Amino acid sequence: MVFCAGRIRGARNGIQRIFFPHPSAAFVVSRYYNCLPSCHPPPVEGLAITSSYRGAQLSPQARGAPFGLDEKEAARRIRGVISRIINGTVDDVVEWLRRDRDCSEIQLSDSLVDSLFGGFGDDWKSAMGFFRWAALCSGYKHSSGTYNKMVDLLGKMKQLNKMMDLVSEMREAGLVTLETVAKVMRRLAGARRWEDAIKMFDNLGTVGLVKSTDSMNILLDTLCKEKCVDAARGVFLELKAHIPPNAHTFNILVHGWCKANRIDEAEWAILEMKGYGFRPSVITYSTILKAHCKNFSFDRVYKLLDDMHAECCPPNVVTYTIVMHSLAKSEEYEAALKIVDRMRAAGCKPDTLFYNSMIYVLGRAGRLSEASHLFEVDMHLNGVAPNLSTYNTMISIFCYRLRDKDAMKVLEKMENTFCKPDLLTYCPLLKLCFKRGKTDDMLCVLMNDIVNKHHLSLDLATYTLLIHGLCRAGKFEWALLLFEEMVNQEIPLRNRTCNLLLCEAEEKNMYGTVERIKDLIKQARNTSCSDQRIDVLHC
């Protein structure tokens, strides 16, 4: 990957080697920073693990027999090989992994493959290359779950033809499940191809599945989540005579109407639900309650909480979490904390998600010591284990209050647990770097951790954050390199990012660069357009 070359005194070229293994990228940064050749070591021990590794950094102990490796070390080796590939194709990734001696001897397992998929982010080419290589490994066969992960990523990145090709492959192997159908429908609808999503349902028989209440609910849920609740209602009216609805069917429609902020229709759906003999559940009422929260109609929220008790359907911890979090977002922190007392009085025990929300509330209210006490003491005393979101929330509130040292301590503590950082962990830290102007030292250390330590692939949101932050920090060349990397990885571009880079180049009278940016935008759009036509019938 192409990342940064900070002006850390005495280690400029070391940083270049770390983040710019590609010669042309290193040249651009060297010219930008006016760096002279030097032999200074990298500023952080063990930092140089991109362009120069090809196995050289592995300790004698780490280079033991691959069959005896634990999954963590095996995953690290595979990620290390993939991270050395600059702007490669799917076939390049397959070939690099196939030729690597250590990787060829690693015994893959479902858990190892799943753990690796978690680090690809939006980098579908690396994921697809790894997926294809894994299929060639002896003793391993992709499960339906692994296929589903790959299908979902291809759909997310608008690689719809490739997604449908993979579904055809799954059909031939008898691996298509309702989960597969759900992911395909959701991605088709997300690409505004609602008719194709409906056609997928109509053609369930071609993939060995039948039309049922469960499959109908998947279609309705897909349409509702993509804000096509009217279409979902039409489908329901057409199918209800042939496929019996259940309580979940109506909960989906209630959610769809609420998502469209049409609460009156949601309440009508509840009446229809009762007409079919189904009682509204805490999920049903919590959905309505959440819609009122989004409208900041807290009088209605409190009334609905009372009504739930009257209906013998008391709120649960999820309901209270929704209310507390919504009050905090409207900056009514004291009212949010009173929800805690109300919940305790009702005998409802907090769970991890509730603690996460409460930590967020206290952090936004500036009560960091109380938030820290919850995190470090209270959760443990109540037998509630922190999860990834708990650590991310703690890091986020410390960054929000500009306490970078405390945030880094939480990150260090997190790295010593079973919870490993993801991109959401690093986003508030990256934002804080730009806010504090630490784009030479702290930013480079964080980027090294993301890429080389945890082997995370950047996604659209992280690329956007970095490019915009670097432009504001006056590091246009670096931002441009990241933009080019996005295009080469076929990650969809945002118009705001394209316009920002064009304006920056024009203001600097870099007319050649303006044309280069336009060419990259054209390249990205051509790639996107090439995958617009799909044929669901072939699946």
TrEMBL record:
<protein>
    <submittedName>
        <fullName>Pentatricopeptide repeat-containing protein At3g04130, mitochondrial</fullName>
    </submittedName>
</protein>
<dbReference type="Pfam" id="PF13812">
    <property type="entry name" value="PPR_3"/>
</dbReference>
<dbReference type="InterPro" id="IPR002885">
    <property type="entry name" value="PPR_rpt"/>
</dbReference>
<feature type="repeat" description="PPR">
    <location>
        <begin position="281"/>
        <end position="315"/>
    </location>
</feature>
<feature type="repeat" description="PPR">
    <location>
        <begin position="387"/>
        <end position="421"/>
    </location>
</feature>
<keyword id="KW-0677">Repeat</keyword>
<comment type="similarity">
    <text>Belongs to the PPR family. P subfamily.</text>
</comment>
<dbReference type="InterPro" id="IPR011990">
    <property type="entry name" value="TPR-like_helical_dom_sf"/>
</dbReference>
<feature type="repeat" description="PPR">
    <location>
        <begin position="143"/>
        <end position="177"/>
    </location>
</feature>
<feature type="repeat" description="PPR">
    <location>
        <begin position="351"/>
        <end position="386"/>
    </location>
</feature>
<feature type="repeat" description="PPR">
    <location>
        <begin position="459"/>
        <end position="493"/>
    </location>
</feature>
<feature type="repeat" description="PPR">
    <location>
        <begin position="246"/>
        <end position="280"/>
    </location>
</feature>
<dbReference type="Pfam" id="PF01535">
    <property type="entry name" value="PPR"/>
</dbReference>
<dbReference type="Pfam" id="PF12854">
    <property type="entry name" value="PPR_1"/>
</dbReference>
<dbReference type="Pfam" id="PF13041">
    <property type="entry name" value="PPR_2"/>
</dbReference>
<feature type="repeat" description="PPR">
    <location>
        <begin position="316"/>
        <end position="350"/>
    </location>
</feature>
